[in-house]
Structure formats: C-alpha cells, structure tokens
Amino acid sequence: MLRSRLLWKLYLGYFVLIVLTASILGALVFRRIREDSLEEIQTSLRSHALFFREFAGRRPADESASELQDRLRLLGREMGARLTVIATDGRVLADSDRDPAEMDNQLNRPEILRARSHGLDTRPRLSEIRGVPGISLALPVRDNLGNLGYIRVSMPLSAIDERLGRSGKAVFAGTVSVAVVALILGLLVARRLLRPLVSMTRIAESMAGGDYGQRLSIARSDEIGELGDALNRMARSSQRRMETFQSDHRQLLAILGGMAEGVVAVDENERVLHMNEAAGRILGADASTSLGKPVWETTRIPQISETISSTLRKGTGVNTSLEIRSSPRDRSIELKATPLRNGEQAPVGAVVVMHDVSERLRVETMRQDFVANVSHELKTPVAAIQALVETILDDPEMTGQTRERFLRKTRNQSLRLSSIVSDLLTLSRMESEEGVTRETVDLRDTVAVPAEEAIPTAEVKRIRLRIRVPDRPLWTTGDMEGLCLVTSNLVGNALKYTPREGEVTVSLSQEGDQALLEVQDSGIGIEARHLDRIFERFYRVDTARSRELGGTGLGLSIVKRVVLAHNGSVSVESIPGRGSTFRVLLPVPGNSWTPSRSSAA
Asked: pLDDT for 45-79, tens place per residue?
C-alpha cells in the first residue's frame, strides 16, 4: 500500500494544501498580534506625549537647563521612554538619554516638521533610536515663560519584538501541531480510500496475465463499489470471450504454422479468413475488422488481390515483390502466395506471406552510400596530398617560401584526413557495444569541460558563449569520452555556423529522471527539408561551406550514435536565418533537481 504512486500523489496534494493553509493562518494570526502590539505601544506613546506636554508646559520660571535635564532623566526612566525638549530653532534644551550639547539641530527631523505643519497631531511615526527601530511623537508646547518649542517622546520597539518572538513561537508550535495531526489523519483516509483500488489493480494484472477466475469482494455502495462490480462483470465477459478466442486460435494454427511475417489467409471467394497484425500494418488495414471481407476491400494495394487471384486461378504458388508508396517512406515487400487445398487436393483458398524488406534494402543502400562517401571523403585529401608532394618533388628550384606554403597545405590535408579517420573510428566504436565503456559520470563535466575548451574559438569570432550547468552533480552511467564528444561536436557546429558577434548558449538541466542538454545558437539555421537527414553520415546541408569550414560530415552522426548508446534521444529545431537548437535527453536515475550555475565568455 505504501508503495502506491497514486497514494503518494493524493497525499502530496493533501500535504501541500494542509501546509499552505496552516502557514497562511499562522501568518495571519502573527500579523494580527503584531498590529495589536504596535497599536498598544502607539496608544501608550500618545498618552506619554500628552502627559509630557503638560509637564513641559508647567516648567518653573527659574528652572535651569541642568535641572530640567535631571527632571527629564527621572521622568524618562519612570515612563520607559526617551524624552526631549526642543526649542523653536531646533536646539535641544534637554534630553533624558543624551547630553543636549552633543546632539544635532532637530529642526529638520520628520517628527518636528510634522509637529510644525500639523500642530497637535498624535499619530506616531517609525524612526530609529540610536540605530534601534522605534517610534516617535513630537508636539508643539508653550512653557510658563511664554517660550514656544516642541517636546518629543520616543520608545524603542524591543518590547514588541520580544512579545512577537514569544507569540511567534506559540503560533508556530500550534500550526505545526495542527498540520501534523491533519497529515496523519489524511494519510489514514488516503490509505482507506486506495485499498480497494489496489485490489482492483491486482485483479486487472491477473486478467492481463490470462487469469480471469479471480473476483473482487467490495461491500460498498459508492462509486468504488460500482467500479468493483463493473470489473467483475468485465472479468466474466472476458473469460467467455477468451474461451471463444482459444477455440478459433486452434483452428488457425494449421494455417499459420510457423509463419512469423505478415500473413493473410483467404477462402476460395477471396474473403479474409485471418490477418495478423503485421499484415495489417503492411496493408494499412485493421486486422480485427477484416475477417469475412473480400481482400480487395480491406486494402488499397491492387497487387495483393491480383497475386491471390492468380494463385487461386492457376493453383500454383506465386513469388513476387512490390513497392508501397506511403509516408514517411516507401516500403519494399516480398510476397509469397501458396494455395490451400482440402483432403481431395482441391483449392479452397490461399495464404499470402508478406516480408517487409525495406529495412534490409535501406541498410544495404546506406552501406553502399557509406562506402562511396568514405571513398570520396578519403580520396579528396589523399589526392590533394599527392598533388602537393609531387609538385614539391617535380620543382627542385622551388623557393623556400613557396615550399613552406605547399607543406602547410599538405599538413592541413593530412590533418583533415586524420580527422576523418578518427571520426570513423569513433563512430565504429560507438556502434559496437563492446566499444562503449560504462562508468559513473557527472554530466556537468561532460558539458562544462568541452564547452570551456571552445571559449578561445568563441573569443576569436567575438561570439558570446554562455555555459549553464547545475550546482550539484548529475550522475549517470556511460562513456565519458563519448559524452564529451556530444558536447564538443554540438558546440563546435554552433560556433562554426554562427557569424561574428553572435551568441551560443550551452545549458544542462534536469527534467524528471532525464538530463537535458541544449545547445542554442543564433547562426544561419537549417531549412526544414534537411532536418530529417542531418544526422546521417557525411550528409551536409551546404557541401561547399562545410568543407570550407573544415567539417568531416560525421560530427552529428557521432552525436546520435553516442546518445542512442546511452538510451537517450537527440532532436533539433531550427529557423533559417535565426539559429538552431539541439536538444539531447539522457537518463539520470536517482538524481534530484538542483539550481544551475552559469558562466559566459
């Protein structure tokens, strides 16, 4: 039960709902407590300010500044607030916490400006008291001497912070307790709900394995109970159909024999007695609905009905072949028709065996093309090297500068020849299972290292190369060298076909249990008609341009073979004139998603 994916999906949604609800309620309660506490302090501050205003207004006429300072200190300690008396010009006359002589002019303080403009305004404002958050309130005042000035009362918010801390802990503890209880109850409810579904799944798996004798016993009157009854009825119906099918199957064994290809059996009236799925795919027909229909009605391929008619008419076997024009590619089919005879050797029908040889012919064509392409690709640099060397040998009076130029060209052609041979060996190794090593690999290394090696090339062309990889490892099992070649070839192609001042982005991320490598460029792009063939060996979109840039025509073929060898997939999207995006998906079981780190050149 605890391994049920549906259970944990339901429980995950319930978990998110409970946690989110508890968090919102806790936040609202905490916010209300904070607002009430702040309002309480503001009310206290207003009371202190009005009292202090009366106190300052009744100041004795003969009181000195030092006496006023002493009185403010005593009063400030009793009130638990900071008290300040300010003259109309902004000078501090007395302060309960500091020496007035050390204090700046207060005339431009926001609370003083507010007192000047609003008069008796008892709305406190947030401020800082010696760098500590607090609230202040300033009021205008006239003392017994007739002097105008201002009084200010300030209180720190440390008290509310302490209260909020205690309240926050209580709210958090209550929220967590409620959430834990709700989650436990939710798990119990989910298990009770899913228990009959698990039983239904077990019964359905037994039916899929051919056992139709098991039944469900669910004493419920809700939808789950109705589903259980429906499953029982389906099991009984399937059991009856299976018995009928097995009877028909025994009748067809004599016809099918050991045939493993597409098979169509017809009677003497050319009506279909049997058509297997392979034949249905070849003929573009539905094998389950073709029984009893004339063969010419089930397929649009006239050669099939013609071959059957010829076999029935002549009473002899017919071997032939045909080409089927269809999407996405044409198919080549070999046909072998044999008459069926009864005990008196009279023809009672025919059997047609169809063998799709398209793949075999395609592989043979690819082999021939590959040999031709390899011969051509190798012949070009070999011929160039031969011509250059012969020119050097036939001209003993050649200047040193010319000889050096010819030798440099010879070296370039030999490097090209070496690159072709190296790519062919790599391709051959990747096509052989024995040639692919298996080790634990961090995909970040297979992306970041080859991409960073291309930074000098990008700098020469003034191309902005962005590299983004996760901060934590993405482990997989594979061939380190081959995976590095994937990144190296894709980045190399992107830089090769991106003009100066362009941009290439290499990113590695995780999507579920797969790693996604994306190489995006702002280059010349690829036309749609080439996208299905760019991963073929030696296929070039623009032959002249590719050879001019030094391409061998094998890079993308190597990419595809490496990816397939790692049970992955590769795709491309491109818009001519706007760039291309190559995407590689590789399995990374057991990894967790991590945020990415990025770099740019």
From this structure: 777 777 777 777 666 666 677 777 888 888 878 77
Q: Which residues of 417-452 are buried (b: 16+ CB within 10 A; e: fewer)?
A: bebbeebbebbebbeeeeebeeeebbbbbbbbebbe
**What are phi and psi for residue 497, nearest 5 degrees?**
-105, 15
- Three-class DSSP category at 62: coil
Q: Is the peptide bond before 328 cis (omega within 30 degrees of 0)?
A: yes
Find, among 50, 148, 146, 137, the residue nearest to 91 by Cα: 148
Tokens 């609202």 correspond to 28
Q: Which residue segments constitute the domains of the chain, with CATH numbers given?
A: 42-155 (3.30.450.20), 211-256 (no CATH), 257-356 (3.30.450.20), 361-431 (1.10.287.130), 436-600 (3.30.565.10)
Closest by CA position to 41, among listed 126, 111, 112: 126
Q: Which residue has the higher pLDDT, 396 or 199?
A: 396
User: Phi and psi dihedrals of 254, rounded to 5?
Assistant: -65, -30
What residue ranges in 424-493 does DSSP mark as E strands? Answer: 439-442, 464-470, 475-478
pTM of structure = 0.39
CB 513 within 8 A of CB 478: no
**DSSP conformation letters of 357-397:** -HHHHHHHHHHHHHHHHHHHHHHHHHHHHHHHHHHHHH-TT
Contact 353, 336 (CB under 8 A): yes
Q: Closest Cα to residue 154, out of 183, 128, 115?
A: 128
Cα 285 from Cα 226, distance rounded (Å):
37
